[in-house]
Design a protein that fits this description.
Two copies of one chain form a homodimer. Chain A contains nine helices and 14 strands. Chain A has about 325 residues and is of the alpha/beta class.
Chain lengths: ~325, ~325
């Protein structure tokens, strides 16, 4: 087995951010958790998706109103700069999700990786936007990611920084196996993400416990099948009465949960993750070069939606 | 939600088949389980991988010796015909795995689907062959699938039969997310497979409990992520002293285990599976046509092994 390569890893779950909470208060909470992570000797901390505001896609409003109130035009900006400063001072890198408005006026659901020198070394824009773009007045809340955001144009970036190859995604991306494969095929050793997952499904009466179950089982299988560590940070609890699941986790390449949040509040979990554990899986069961057969995977890129079965004649196979 | 479309589904797990057990005795066991499945009103029963013989890739021998003793040159052949007859009489379809020698002399790890009229309607040849081709004299046993079998040339067939769209794979294929995506992109509603999974990993000292854990978590995530039912049948227990895991299961499109074997012997489990449950997931969270982004999945077919990260410049993303 490979020589161990350990990195102190923290996940900073956030309790609710209400409409009335300003960015200054939110950034103070992030800095508090960064300090707690530092006290456990973390070198990297994962914050949630859209960490600076409430999960605003639940509210019907115009794009202009959303942009005015919830989007960041620059990063860091003066309100977020104290987090960058605190992280650089602590010598800690971080993942942070926020709503991004570009100079060209494009709106994305974005996350960045900031290294221990305070430099933005990677930026990811969410690929798999869930929900809808139309107003659903009869639903208890909206899920307007398809209205407020454009589909990301970055692919799934993998960056080598602070001694680790980090892959990025956001929230709903974690349920799509293509997300993790795109990372592991670039050598990712640790996948990081934030999420906001309403516990109520507005589209059909899905039993609430399944929201936690499918979250965990997706991350566990994806960590294993891609021989990666995965660290996932929730924003959770009741934001102005609208409940979202917690369950922030650090998952090992064995598919085992190494650490898991047990509250729906601001909570830091830590694991001293050995990246070399993934090497073992990459050498054997998931030695891609030896075992993968892309000639049989072509439908994955040739089709978007499901189609008819390919022609198949068992009598011709003799 | 869709109108329910239920099919009585059984999984027939097999206890060990020893070197000394002949095919006649094995076929009798399969027929006994078929009758038990029928008594529970099953319309389809899933038998294991290489169901007719012991898991012979554990033994070092020449290809010729393996073919002579463990492969089938025709299907059905006189020894297996009684199973086909019993199934047709019972009006039950089945999945059966066996070692196939073609007329051209090619050797495959194969499975067939036989419909309720006793007709072979699909044939699958295993794509992801695990293990090695060389002799490992210091290992407690071998895993010579790469020696005895050629890589399958069928892709992952999906056939509509007996009112359901069935997708096929075998054993190690279940750990590869591409397997399930190739099926769900052809509209599969129920994926069926057999497996033989040694509880000891000869390549590295993997904790034994992980063999069961990664088996279950892979099937649960794949069922969910592809909005499919999955039925998996083990051959298990100690074959001439070599132990393999049980854990045969029927998994729902919610990722929940609907039925699971609790022995390491011949054991039939049953579930009255509603194919329409998958429709709900296909309409919403996994509405592929609405949410998939194949333009960001290209590495899956463009690379076999993992490579360097793609170029990424966050400063250019403004």
């Amino acid at each position: 087995m490979s020589k161990s390569r350990k990195i102190g890893l923290a996940v900073a779950q956030m309790g609710p951010v209400h409409l009335a909470d300003d960015r200054q208060a939110v950034v103070r909470r992030l800095i508090d958790m960064l300090k707690e992570a530092k006290a456990r000797s973390a070198k990297f901390v994962v914050f949630p998706e859209l960490a600076l505001t409430t999960f605003f896609p639940r509210y019907w409003m115009s794009e202009e109103a959303a942009i005015e109130r919830f989007f960041e035009r620059t990063m860091p900006n003066p309100q977020v700069q104290p987090l960058f400063d605190a992280a650089r001072e602590a010598g800690i890198g971080f993942y942070l999700g926020y709503a991004e408005l570009t100079a060209k006026g494009e709106a994305f659901n974005t996350a960045i990786i900031v290294d221990d020198n305070g430099r933005i070394v990677a930026k990811y824009r969410k690929t798999h936007l869930p929900g809808h773009a139309d107003h659903k007045p009869d639903a208890p809340f909206q899920h307007l990611e398809k209205k407020f955001f454009e589909v990301g144009n970055t692919g799934f970036p993998v960056v080598e920084t602070m001694g680790a190859k980090l892959g990025m995604c956001i929230c709903n991306d974690r349920r799509w196996p293509e997300t993790w494969r795109a990372m592991s095929l670039q050598g990712a050793e640790l996948g990081v993400l934030g999420y906001n997952t309403p516990s109520l499904n507005i589209h059909w009466p899905e039993p609430v416990h399944l929201r936690m179950h499918t979250h965990l089982v997706s991350l566990q299988a994806s960590a294993y099948q891609n021989a990666m560590w995965i660290a996932a940070a929730a924003k959770c609890g009741k934001e102005d009465g609208f409940h979202m699941i917690g369950g922030s986790v650090i998952v090992a390449p064995s598919g085992e949960i190494a650490a898991q949040c047990v509250t729906e509040e601001d909570e830091v979990i830590f694991a001293n993750v050995d990246l070399a554990l993934g090497d073992t899986f990459r050498e054997h069961v998931f030695n891609f070069a030896k075992h993968r057969r892309p000639e049989h995977y072509r439908l994955i890129v040739e089709r978007t939606g499901a189609g008819a079965p390919l022609p198949h004649d068992p009598d011709a196979l003799n």
